[in-house]
Amino acid sequence: MCGVTRLDKIRNEYVRGSLSVQDITDKMQESRLSWYGHVKRKPPDYVGNLALLHDLSGRKPRGLLPLDLRIHEAAALYEAKRGVSQLATGDGEMERMTKFADIPHPAKHIDLQFICLEDREQVDTHSTQTVRIYTDGSKIDGKVGASLSFWSNEVETKCKKLKLSSYCTVFQAELLAICRSTREIIKHPKDSFGIYSDSRSSLEAVTNNRSLHPLVVEIRRNLEECKRRNKRVELFWIKAHAGLEGNERADQLAKEAALKLKTKPDYDLCPVSCVRRQIRLGSLEVWNKRYSDGETAATTKLFFPDAIKACSIVRHVKPNGILTQVMTGHGGFSAYLNRFKCKEDPSCICEPEKPETVEHIIIEYPVFGRESGVSRNGMIVVIFFVFMQKRWASLLPTVGRPIRALRTFQKEFVDIETKFYSEVH
C-alpha cells in the first residue's frame, strides 16, 4: 500500500503514522471506554453500575484504588488527551506527542550523539567552538524558568530568560532552553556552536529518534536545518554545580526567570504527568471520603485517619502478623474472638465491663507489669503504641523517604518486642 517491505526495516508505528492508522491498543482502550460510558448512562440500579460498586472478596494489592475509580481515571485521562474535557488541565492545553505522520521518514533521520564532560579539564579540551551556549531549567516555589547563556572567548556575549507555566516540569524547561538555542543558532552568522546542558535526560531524548515529544521533534528539525546551512552543532552534557562559569550563570538566570519574570509564559502546554497527578488527587479525595464515611475499618482509622496520607506509605510496607492484628483489630483480642464464637467473654482482663479491643488497650489500659496478668495481646499493642509515639516523629525527618522510615520502624518494633519478652519471661 505504501511501498514498504520488511527488508526496509521500518518500524510498524512509522508505517501506521504515515497512513494515519490508529494503534490497536488505543482502539481497544477507546472501545472499552465507550462501553463504560454506555454503562454509566444506564439507571443506577442497572447490573453494570451495581457491579462497578461491588466490593470483591479476597485480597488486593496494598494501596490499590477501587475498580470504579481506576476506570474514572482512565476515562478522564482519555478525554483530556483528546481535548474533550478540561477538568484536569483547567484553561491550559495538554501537551500531546507528535504524530508519526508529522515527523521525518526514518530514512531521513540524522544520527545525533552527545559527549559527557565530567570536569573542567574535559570541558576546556572540547571547547573549540566559536560560540558556546549553556542552557538550564529551574523550578522554585512552584514557578518554572529556563535560560540561555552565550559565551565566546570566555566572555558572555548574550543571555536570554524564558518563562514557563507553573504546572510545567523541569524536563520541559530544559528542553525549551535547548530548543530556543537551536533557533538562535539558525539565525546566528557564525558556523560553529556547542550546546552545553546539565540535563542528561533531555539530551538522551534529543538523541533518541523514537522520541515524539513536541520540543524534541522541533529540536531535531532545527538541527537538520543547521546541517543544511553548514552549521556545525555539538551537544555536551556537563556536570551541574561543578564550578563552570557558563553553567553557573545559566543556573542563576533560570532561577531569576522562574522567580522574577512577569511576562507571558513562553511555553504553557500542560504535561501528561501533571494531568495524571490532578486526576489521581481527585480519585484520592473520593476514596478518602468513602473511607472516612464508611462504617468499617474503625481500628485502622485510629492509626491512619486520612486515606490520602496513608496510601503512599502503607502500600510499600510488607506487613507481618503483629502489625496486621494491631492495625486492623483482627487478631487474638477477646472482643474480636467473641464475634466469631471463639470466646465466650469479650471483656478485658483488666476490667470485666470493658471489651478487649485495640482502642481500649491503647487508651484505657492501666500500667502493666509481671503481676498485673496482662495478656500477650495487651503487651503487643502497648509496646506498639509506646514505640510509635517515641519513634515515629523522630524517624521521618531523619530518614530519606517515608517508605524507608516505615520499614526501619517495622524492624525496630519487632526487635524491641522480642527483647521485651526475653526480659519478662
Describe the overall structure:
This is ribonuclease H. It comes from Bombyx mori. This protein has 425 residues and is α/β, with parallel strands linked by helices. The chain has 17 helices and six strands. Strands 1-6-5-2-3-4 form a six-stranded mixed beta sheet, sandwiched between helices. The termini are far apart.
Q: What is the ordering of alpha helices and beta strands?
A: HHHHEHEEEHEHHEHHHHHHHHH
Please estimate the helix content: 40-55%
Helical segment count: 17
Task: Provide the residue-averaged pLDDT.
Answer: 78
Question: C-alpha Rg, in Å?
Answer: 30 Å
Tell me the strand order in the biggest sheet: 1-6-5-2-3-4
| Poorly predicted ranges | 367-379, 385-403
Task: Give me the secondary-structure category.
Answer: alpha/beta
Largest sheet: 6 strands, mixed
Distance between the termini: 83 Å
DSSP E strands, number: 6
Shape: elongated
